[in-house]
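Take our chain:
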Amino acid sequence: MLAGTDAGNPGLFQGYSLHRELVLLTQAGLSNWDALAAATTAAGRFLDAPFGLQRGDRANLPVLDASPFEDVRHTQNIHRVIYRGQIVNRSDFLNEAATSVPTVPTH
């Protein structure tokens, strides 16, 4: 089972909808561990993408303020993001996203 596979559907918002899906998976009976695996390691195996912190892995991960194994909703309390082994400055990223206006083709 994979989580986050419906991201292209109308009414779903990347990020928020994945967190909500994790909660729904646990409410449906999956353990926190299995729900998290559906969004991480299982997805990585399906995509044949090294998933972890070993040499050659992508090293994309959130650093959370609390353990999602205790409560899967803790995935929403993101302290820091590491992308390709580099710490992302979330404030700069969010400010840039808030001020960016996408261009729409006119023809």
In short: The CA atoms of residues 22 and 36 lie 7 Å apart. DSSP finds four helices and three strands in the chain.
